[in-house]
Amino acid sequence: MSASATPTPLESAATAPERKRWAALRDSDTLYSFLHSKVTIAAAIVTLLIICGALFAPWIAPHNPFDLREVNLINSNLPPAWMAEGNKDFLLGTDDQGRDILSTILYGSRISLSVGILSVAFAAIVGIVLGLVAGYRGGAVDTVIMRIADVQLTFPAILIALLIDGSVRAMVGGQRNEEMVFWVLIFSIGLSFWVQYARTVRGSTMVEKSKDYVLAARLIGIHPIKILFRHVLPNVIGPVLVIATINLALAVILEATLSFLGVGLPPTQPSLGTLISIGNNYLFSGEWWIAIFPGITLAALVLAVNLVGDWLRDALNPKLR
Amino acid sequence: MSTEPLVTVENLGRIYDVSKPWLNRVVERAPIQLLTAAAGVTFSIARTETFALVGESGSGKSTVAKMVVGLVPPSSGEVTIDGISMTHRRRSSERERLRRRIQMIFQAPYASLNPRWRVENIIAEPLRAFSVAQNADEQHKRVGELLRLVGLDPADGVKYPHEFSGGQRQRIAIARALSAQPEFIVCDEPTSALDVSVQAQILNLMRDLQRQFGLTYLFISHNLAVVRHMATRIGVMYLGRLVEVSPARELFRAPRHPYTRMLLDAVPDLDLTERGRKAVEGEIPNPITPPPGCAFHPRCPYAFERCRVERPVLLPSAPASVACHAVEEGRIKPGAGVLEGAVTP
Amino acid sequence: MTDPVLSVRNLRVEFPTRRGTLTAVDDVSFDIMPGEVLGVVGESGAGKSMTGNAVIGLLEPPGRIAGGEILLQGQRIDHLPYEAMRRIRGKRIGMVFQDPLTSLDPLYRVGEQLVETILTHSKMSETQARARALELLNEVGIPAAKARIDAYPHQFSGGMRQRVVLALALAARPELVIADEPTTALDVSVQAQIIALIKRLCAQYGVAVMLITHDMGVIAETADRVAVMYAGRIAEIGPVRNVVKSPYHPYTQGLMGAIPKLDSEADRLTQIPGAMPRLNAIPRGCAFNPRCAHVFDRCRAERPELIPLERSAAACWLYDKASQPAETAS
């Protein structure tokens, strides 16, 4: 008898929340405001297209620009397909080494987005942890962390990246290790962004920690780390998501800037910034497509991500609802 | 049951440093500012009784409540619960075991429940923290029982706090407080954020639960009528100090301290006896710069020279202990009941 | 017989939302006579503040007046353009809110704000206005008003700030004062002072007052008549003594029983089961019927209008001659 009776509460406990979650999503204000903003929908579609293109580049790109067997110098500097000398195999034309521009853009977005996402993740994790600790502990710990953040803010992001790049090069003896350049970029971009997360999280943590639910958890002796991550973090994460979205666009631009300046990714592993940098050399000799198409992609990506971020900020802000 | 009080609070005090940051202090030559939130607070609570602390804002009653449960470390004095010191640095393992027997119910039912947690997890948190429930099944069952106990549906466990009204949220908070079967519950203004009709439900529920489980309450409130309904003994606080401790009935029958009389006079009159509220002179002083002597003397109609220089101490006597020079010297008699008109100096 | 200062007729306030239109105030009518204090009492969500905001034309969008009339001295003010309404607020209707800081500009000295209000609403020189401001501050009981007239709002305590707000509300000698929870944020001892002050000033100036509060105690001490609101409608309206001492409506009866009293030895408080319905789930018939102890069939089907009784009126089928109540009210 008990055997037949027990599954019922278990079942309902497992399925009811699931069903509720869908129902909650369907009539949530966030979804409503999303569906009623055409700009946001367009921006989300552009973002999604570029992300999918980057994600599936090896499968959808017409050529593999990094496979030397596929690259032929005979095809170098071809204009886009619709122009007189264009070749329909190379829709957006080719660069000086005969690489297909469309394919390099797809592969380039892959690299740009990886750098962007990873550096934002790095910045967010560092910022969130330091912000939580500073806000929750207060006192000297807070002062030290926030003073470091203040000092950090006095250095422009590019300067930090150049400094780190320079010191890493000095350490490994002038050899530019391509694998390492990728991680150095992520580290230096991430390092220039964490302060924003730390400040935001610290502020919200100071508000949340004095709320009664945190006191109630402290009262029964829950460990501070557990309180921070299980109680405080879910309640301060909203603004972090907004910053992260907007930072993603900034990080992609910063990476492009660094690559354009020559301290970023090398031409053998080109990001969107590297592609623009390469194309820049040919801009005035007539081969405009080498720089313009990656440039348009970069601009579209950054604009679209920013628009999504703006919407997210408004949607999550109860005062603007 | 022993006759020893369950909770003993002795000479409890808390001083906050509210000065500006160090750098500003040096540059602006600002002095260190100390706020005495509570000082010399002494009382005890017997098993299964309700001891209430009343006072207006800034009286330090909430600070005392937080010190009693160990959320705020006292600057001085000691809290002993069932013979175990809550404040002593050593013997922390005994204190850990004591935690399970103490719980707290907070004022704002909106802030006391984590908005991102399901009700079931909120109520079960103490069960997990003290390993009361052996497994998920037992935990689920226990949460269901608790929800029913406070008058909610066990199926409500899967919902989030924002899906409930204020009164229901306070019921959830009570279910959580009861989940690890405590003996002593500190209630910090548990109904002041609720509407009257809901307040009545919650107060009745709290009394029923007290009887059912033999609970001991420390009840903090600014509302004298609510305290009248709930408490067996009452301590009146003013600017961080106890001015009168008295059995509930005695306090309302014959208030002794001038501040207590003033508070009783200020309670709105629902019987339309044309008594009218007596408008009291003045307001609560800034606790950073309290008046010398008795803190109440600038508002007190009975104040005389001694009150301005010498701080009165709480003189224990039966039935009521009072901290007032005028009462000590017999210049004012215990109030003949406020409802029959107030005493004139 | 004198005409009422404020007359509200069949007021209806709606909030269009994407899940349908919510009715926050439904068919509310009342009058306030010169020098009279009408208390509007109710629990959160009853629509009492919404009624007050509708009168002063400060409904928060998307809320709007969907029906009825609001008359100030016989003149309709519910459909006035924003600019015209703004001139009426402050000059003819004074306002006091729960948080004094919403009425006071933190960047200006108290005296400046008073002088500005006086000057915008009456013709006099700046020196005269300042003298009038000082007079007002003295009248609302600010000690050493002469020295404090040039202080900033943050330099006053909560009770003192509320006094300044009262002075500001009365500065233009309005005909009507709307006080929305004026004492809720104050300590008991200070509360009593402010209540006494409101009473004295209104009698002195002959102003009509709409006192909105959840606190029956404040109403009992201050108001001449009371309107008890429930779920957007008036459940009972009448002289304060009748409503407080011998209420007709089961909701008012429950509400009065639920208030803990200083002189009662009752072990349990009377409690009304359940809670006020949310605006999107107001029951059919009488909104109170699911919580009512005297409910019968008609209550579930038909919405009761206010039924005149001796000196009060109650919206309850128990008092309708046509219906057959199962039991009589106590």
Q: How would you explain this protein's 3D organization?
A:
- The complex is a heterotrimer of chains A (321), B (345) and C (330).
- Chain A is 73% helix and 0% strand.
- Chain A has helices at residues 2-5, 7-26, 29-35, 38-55, 57-60, 101-137, 139-153, 157-172, 178-191, 194-209, 212-219, 224-261, 272-280, 289-316.
- Chain A has one domain (28-66, 85-320): MetI-like (MetI-like fold), CATH 1.10.3720.10.
- Chain A has 321 residues and is mainly α.
- Chain A is globular, with a radius of gyration of 24 Å.
- In chain A, helix 6 crosses helix 9 (178-191).
- The model of chain A is unreliable at 1-16 (pLDDT under 50).
- Chain B has helices spanning 22-28, 61-69, 92-99, 119-129, 136-149, 166-178, 196-213, 224-230, 248-253, 258-266, 305-309, 325-328; strands at residues 7-17, 34-45, 50-54, 76-81, 84-85, 102-105, 184-188, 216-221, 233-238, 241-247, 321-322.
- Chain B is of the alpha/beta class.
- In chain B, 32% of the residues lie in helices and 19% in strands.
- Chain B has three domains: 1-101 and 186-231, P-loop containing nucleotide triphosphate hydrolases (Rossmann fold), CATH 3.40.50; 110-181, no CATH class; 260-345, no CATH class.
- The longest helix of chain B is centred in the middle third of the chain and has 18 residues, at 196-213.
- Mean pLDDT of chain B is 86; it is low at 336-345.
- Chain C has 330 residues and is an alpha/beta fold.
- Chain C has one domain: P-loop containing nucleotide triphosphate hydrolases (Rossmann fold, 3-Layer(aba) Sandwich).
- Chain C is 32% helix and 23% strand.
- In chain C, the strands form two sheets. Chain C has an eight-stranded mixed β-sheet with strand order 6-7-8-3-9-10-12-11, with helices on both faces. A four-stranded antiparallel β-sheet of chain C has the order 2-1-4-5.
- Chain C is globular, with a radius of gyration of 21 Å.
- Classes of the chains: A mainly alpha (321), B alpha/beta (345), C alpha/beta (330).
- Chains in contact: A-B, B-C.
- Chains A and B meet through helix 2, helix 11 and helix 12 of A and strand 6 and helix 4 of B.
